# Entry
Amino acid sequence: MSVKKFIAPQLALLLILSAVWLAGVDKVIVKNEIHQDNLHKYMQVQRRVIDNYFGETTLDDLFHESIKGLVRGMNIDDLELEGTPIDTLQRHDIQNLRESYNRFEEAYLFIANNHSDKDMSRLTESSIKAMLSLLDPHSVYIERDDSERIQEEFAGRFQGIGIQFNIIQDTITVITAISGGPSDQLGIMSGDRIISIDDTSAIGYTNEDVMRRLRGEKGTKVDVEILRPRTANPIRFTIERDDIPLTTIDTRYMLDNETGYIKINRFAATTHEEFLTSVVDLKEQGMTRLMLDLRGNPGGYLSQAIAISEEFFPRNTKLVSTQSRHTRFNQEVSSRRDGLAKDLPVIVLVNEGSASASEIVSGAIQDHDRGLVVGRRTFGKGLVQQQYELIDGSNIRVTISRYLTPSGRLIQKPFDGSSEDYAFEIRHRSTDASMDAREFKDQVPDSLQYFTKAGRPVFGGGGIVPDFIVQEDTTASPYLFNFMLVNRVDFNFVRDYLDQYGDTFRNRWESNFEDFRQNFEWSDKDRAMFITLMQEEGLVLTDEVDKPTVENNNLKMSREMYNELVWMNYGRMKAEIARQVWGSEYFFPIINDHFNDTLNEAMKLWNEVAELEMFAQRRAGLNPDTTPRRN
# Structure
């Protein structure tokens, strides 16, 4: 059938559909509804981008890239393009949406007529993804099933392995393991790349493929093989699917008689409510100062970040502003009331996994000299997205503005390179956190230097640089610890331990967690049982090696090395038994007791917090203009 014959019965209706859509009238029902929906969807995306994207873009570039997307999606090596409507070398100087629609319609129908074996809905998605690739890394297409998944994640109503991921260069890349979920419990971490699922290659998977293979009912299992950055050999995990935690606050407890500790894992719909409950509870326990842990928190809802920030300030304090080429997205947000924690001294813990909403909160506290930011330089995501639903239930997420901290600094790091370079920029930073901060400051131009309310210098253009840098503890070899996690020895050990000694354990410890936390120790018999389980999984204790060595899934090390390193394993197992007996929030106090150099260093800084407060007050008294200043 010729293109002309294919078009003739519908040409008038297609033109009517174009005009009706551009006029904003409800969809007209016509024949070949799938084609109509695909064309409608394409136009929706272009219009949303042109009307809302915060940066500069052109219809001509969007259209040209969409044709490239169509061609790539066809995956035909010897495809003849010259002179056809899908000739990617042609430029048309597209001036308006109608012309873009008509040109795309011509290309679309050419493929539908001449390549009837192709899935036109998938090709339309390919064209949309290509268009969005011209924008920033956070403007993305979200398939319908993924849209439902994202909503479920923020509402906490799903079961699976518990990871947030992106497809980067055809590889499933873990953005974060959801705190307390099955993957987190196994030690799966940000940057891990899933290369196979159930012994089948996962390279080239779509988001839909990943969801179909990794989600499932609680109690079912899935095998994954992971390639970890800076690790030579793939790591295998067997993950048992489970309920993914509903809450966004991992734990709250008193570090000492004065200091409350709250750890937030993401900013979802219930975060502010959970935070208020936590503050009230800790105040009742005697809290007079707060340690707020935002490490590994990738962000979430802007509204929740603003609501949390508001709790640390008096009424009418500037918290954040947004900036866009569309004036309707420009706004300045100030606190509407006196916050519940406005008089509490505060330290905020951050690292390279703290992004977006986490940077809004920590940036506001730093800019107003409200407290200290401690840890390592944050991720550097300072863009605000709006999600728009498309005709088939899929969505696009479009960056509508950039956010600025109260001093006016932009936190967004550059995104001129590839998407992979952007996503893994944190992997290329100096392993010395202090050196990373110095190098970053040296590279920042004068135009990106700002000053806090009290006159301290701060820097924009690449995340939040903490007031106090704490180096990540990398002194101890992780081989023994990682071997335990990969083989789930900690989980199995605790399960077997509770099977054997559960009643005795609970009679002794269950009524007093703090007693357990301070005084519980593994017995010699327990330690011997642990070695046996590790050896069953492939641990070989031998004096023939002078450093830990992995061969054929076996870990070889000397008894002396084992004795030097095993304290980490014992600490993790103690935390695991706390999780299984008391619940997930009791896991973290034990982890903090054993593995938290940043927290320990931060606890030494309360005098500096008090000095900062007095310094800020003196500066405010000397200078009536207390608005944070730009250099």
Observations:
- The first strand starts at residue 140 and ends at 142.
